[in-house]
């Protein structure tokens, strides 16, 4: 049996942790700008937009903690590392999103019952537009970095902030219409739509995180890539079977059985294992590979022949 040794790269870890810390700073900046937009207009829709930014601040703090924990090396109590910590961050963020949506719905209902006109809508829209542009740029960066480093926490933050951008654009368009027409009922209606949209996003964040906590397998495209790499680098082996994978944050666990000729030496089998492990780790930077070697005479089942 051969197992790959995993050593986390320090530079990617520093980059991800620094980004998580900067997310809190950006969230605080955006919160201040959005609250200023609400203060000059009295708009419930802009208030709901600012309230969601409070969630971004809290979620950013939780994400920073989770990312920092996830890069801690394996220890006696956690021999497989701490990479799953990021899933907890995403779950917490999803719960906070739901809480924010409920608070927004309460405010919207109050505004429906007592409609009020908007003050300085043009200035409020302009101020909120600045916050939206900042969020758009930061969300795009988080999503790209989350994909590159397989970070559930950064990915969840990026998706949430991008959803915030979409709702903010909707709010700005709606407020422009409300200001032009004088239909004050549009303001609470927009706030309610914001709440429903972030409820949907919150559910998606929680569902994806729970799937990761339950050892979700690689996506079909990545799984096919794993099998292709094994087949292309297992020269000297006869077949492989029971190929399985699971995700644990940015870490990828891959294991399978490899059948070799009964007369093959342990040393020769180990050379094949090393070749396969190196190829998988090149394709998946933080792959942890476990290979069970079986002699042909004792192979437990018929698998996929090695080409």
UniProtKB/TrEMBL annotation:
Residues 23-214 form the Cation efflux protein transmembrane domain. It comes from Aureimonas jatrophae. SUPFAM superfamilies: Cation efflux protein cytoplasmic domain-like (SSF160240), Cation efflux protein transmembrane domain-like (SSF161111). The keyword DNA-binding does not apply. The lineage of its organism: Bacteria, Pseudomonadati, Pseudomonadota, Alphaproteobacteria, Hyphomicrobiales. It is found in: Cell membrane. One of its GO terms (cellular component) is plasma membrane. It is a multi-pass membrane protein. This is Protein p34. Pfam families: Cation_efflux (PF01545), ZT_dimer (PF16916). One of its GO terms (biological process) is intracellular zinc ion homeostasis. Residues 223-296 form the Cation efflux protein cytoplasmic domain. Belongs to the cation diffusion facilitator (CDF) transporter (TC 2.A.4) family.
């Amino acid at each position: 049996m051969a197992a790959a040794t995993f050593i986390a790269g320090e530079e990617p870890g520093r980059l991800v942790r620094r980004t998580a810390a900067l997310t809190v700073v950006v969230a605080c900046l955006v919160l201040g700008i959005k609250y200023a937009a609400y203060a000059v207009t009295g708009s419930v829709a802009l208030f709901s937009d600012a309230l969601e930014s409070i969630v971004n601040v809290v979620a950013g703090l939780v994400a920073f903690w989770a990312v920092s924990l996830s890069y801690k090396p394996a220890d006696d109590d956690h021999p497989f590392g701490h990479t799953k910590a990021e899933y907890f961050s995403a779950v917490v963020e999803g719960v906070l999103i739901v809480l924010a949506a409920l608070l927004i719905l309460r405010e919207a209902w109050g505004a429906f019952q007592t409609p009020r006109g908007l003050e300085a809508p043009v200035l409020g829209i302009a101020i909120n537009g600045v916050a939206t542009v900042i969020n758009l740029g930061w969300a795009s960066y988080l999503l790209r970095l989350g994909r590159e480093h397989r970070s559930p926490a950064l990915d969840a933050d990026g998706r949430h902030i991008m959803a915030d951008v979409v709702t903010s654009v909707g709010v700005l368009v709606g407020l422009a219409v409300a200001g032009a027409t004088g239909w004050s009922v549009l303001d609470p209606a927009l706030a309610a739509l914001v709440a429903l949209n972030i409820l949907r996003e919150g559910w998606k964040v929680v569902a994806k995180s729970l799937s990761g906590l339950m050892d979700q397998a690689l996506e079909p495209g990545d799984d096919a890539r794993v099998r292709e790499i094994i087949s292309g680098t297992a020269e000297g082996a006869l077949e492989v079977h029971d190929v399985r994978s699971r995700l644990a944050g940015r870490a990828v666990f891959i294991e399978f059985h490899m059948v070799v000729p009964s007369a093959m030496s342990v040393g020769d089998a180990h050379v094949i294992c090393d070749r396969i492990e190196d190829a998988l780790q090149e394709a998946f930077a933080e792959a942890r590979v476990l290979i069970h070697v079986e002699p042909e005479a004792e192979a437990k089942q018929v698998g996929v022949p090695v080409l």
